[in-house]
Automatic annotation (TrEMBL):
Residues 16-119 form the Phytocyanin domain. It comes from the Eukaryota. Residues 1-24 form the signal peptide. It comes from Noccaea caerulescens (Alpine penny-cress). InterPro entries: BlueCu_1_BS, Cupredoxin, Phytocyanin-like, Phytocyanin_dom. Coiled coil: none annotated. This is Blue copper protein. GO terms for cellular component: plasma membrane; side of membrane. GO terms for molecular function: electron transfer activity; metal ion binding. It holds the Pfam family Cu_bind_like. SUPFAM superfamilies: Cupredoxins. PANTHER family: BLUE COPPER PROTEIN (PTHR33021), OS06G0218600 PROTEIN (PTHR33021:SF193). Keywords: Copper, Glycoprotein, GPI-anchor, Lipoprotein, Membrane, Metal-binding, Signal.
Length: 173
């Protein structure tokens, strides 16, 4: 019985050091005039499942827009818009996402953020099964890399194989 409790202890250590950390990240952005969002780029990618939280005072909005509307600061064509003061954007798709303030003059004044979102590790359906690696981010801080999640799937298979082998060995003894 002590072999079984030792095995359970090792499995718990493996789970909490390898499997549990593979989670999405939340990145806060202080959304206001006079900030240089391009200087916040860190070279780390956002990944599908991450969240950006925009915090701002009255007189601002967070509008998700197309690339052309982002580049030209065109207002009125927002994909989505919020003016609540705290806007959480769940990044659900890979690719570039563009955000501007929808108040006239604010986007031209620098209130615009472009982020590149890498694909999350595949969970067996859809997606390419690859994670982004060192995708540049324009105008905002980036969340942690999803590359650890890409390595996790093969490692999980190895761990499961080892556990099954150990359990089969314990059952025979």
């Amino acid at each position: 019985m002590t072999n079984l409790s030792t095995l359970v202890g090792y499995l718990a250590i493996i789970f909490f050091t390898v499997v549990a950390p593979a989670s999405s990240a939340t990145q806060s952005v202080e959304w206001s005039l006079g900030k240089d969002y391009s200087s916040l780029a860190t070279g780390k990618p956002f990944a599908v499942g991450d969240t950006i939280v925009f915090n701002y005072g009255a007189g601002h909005t967070v509008d998700e827009v197309s690339e052309s509307d982002y580049k030209s600061c065109t207002l009125g064509n927002a994909i989505s818009s919020d003016s609540s003061g705290t806007t959480s954007i769940a990044l659900k798709t890979a690719g570039s996402h563009y955000f501007i303030c929808g108040i006239p003059g604010h986007c031209d004044g620098g209130m615009k953020l472009s982020v590149k979102v890498g694909a999350a590790a595949s969970s067996g359906s859809g997606g390419g099964g690859t994670a982004a690696k060192n995708t540049p981010v324009e105008g905002g801080k980036a969340g942690p890399s999803a590359s650890a999640a890409a390595v996790l799937k093969p490692f999980e298979a190895l761990v499961v194989t080892c556990v099954v082998a150990l359990l089969c060995g314990l059952a025979r003894s």
